[in-house]
Structures are given as structure tokens and as C-alpha cells.
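During the practical work, I selected for study one protein's amino acid sequence and its C-alpha cells, as given directly below:
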Amino acid sequence: MTLRMKDLTLVSLFTALIAIGAFIRIPIPVLPFTLQFLFTTLAGLLLGGKLGAMSVGLYIVLGLMGLPIFTQGGGIGYIFTPTFGYIIGFCVGAYATGIIANKVLNPSYKRLYAANFVGLGIVYLFGMVYYYGISNFYLDSPIGLWPLFLYCFILAVPGDIVLCVIAAMIAKRTLPVIRKG
């Protein structure tokens, strides 16, 4: 895969936005959320599956190399935190979102929403499975299925649903500009 300067610039830009998004917290009652999901979703929508996943993958590599760009720091030891599965899910979700959204030249809102919700499902699937595995089998801090579903999905997903809608609106207006340039 040959990358043009524009592609490299956009991948780098979204890597930086994802890192910044990890520290932008939206303070809502019960469970505040960050803008990481918004930027990983936009990476898939605007760059396509491969470049979107490359952008998130670069973010992951930089964080595992020790840059404190994850929400709670960085370094190789971060793979042992229960929430690392969500970060893996961001990469796979960006890929899936990008593939689904960009099957057509000018995706409709319906297609953008569908792509975003598939990506959201992937992020939560990876995140919850990883959280369960690390908590129960590595950290010796068992969590049952109901508390996992409550704290890692029900309380967390409303904010991300709003971000899915926002990402679709941004992508609908921005895609023609990116494709033209």
C-alpha cells in the first residue's frame, strides 16, 4: 500500500486527535466520557477502513512505547489494565466503520449511522470481553456478568451514542472536502 503525503498527514492528524481526545472529558452524571471514541470513529469514516485503523494503530503503538497518551498513562504495562480492550476495539471499530461507510462514494446518513453503530458494537464487545478476562483471570478482582454489563455498557453507552450521531453529521459535511482535496 503506497501512501501519499495527504494520507500520512491525515493519519498523523487523527493519531494526535485521538491522543488529545483521551483527555477531553465530558462531565455528565454517573459516568463522564472522553472524546476518544469520536475521533476513532471519525478516523474510520473520513480516512477509510485501512487508514483509519492505521491512525488508531499508531496511537496504540505510541502509547505502548511509553508516551502517556492513554487516559491513565502509557507503557507496555497498560495491556494489563481492564480498559485496554476498548483501545483494541477502537482500532477494529475504526476499520469496520471505514469499510462500511466508504462502500459508496457519497454515503447517506443512514449508512453513516449504521457504520458508526457497528463500530460502537465492536468497541464494546472487545472492551467488555477484555475487561472481564483481565479482571477475573489476571487481576484476581472478579466481576460478574451483570455488573460488567451495567458498568461497562449500560452506564457508558449513552454518551457514545450521542458521539455516533455527531460523527455522522461531521462526516457527512467533511467527506466531500477530504475527497476533493
Remarks:
- The chain has one domain: 5-176.
- The mean pLDDT is 94.
- Helices lie at 5-21, 36-47, 49-64, 84-101, 109-138, 145-154, 157-180.
- The first helix runs from residue 5 to 21.
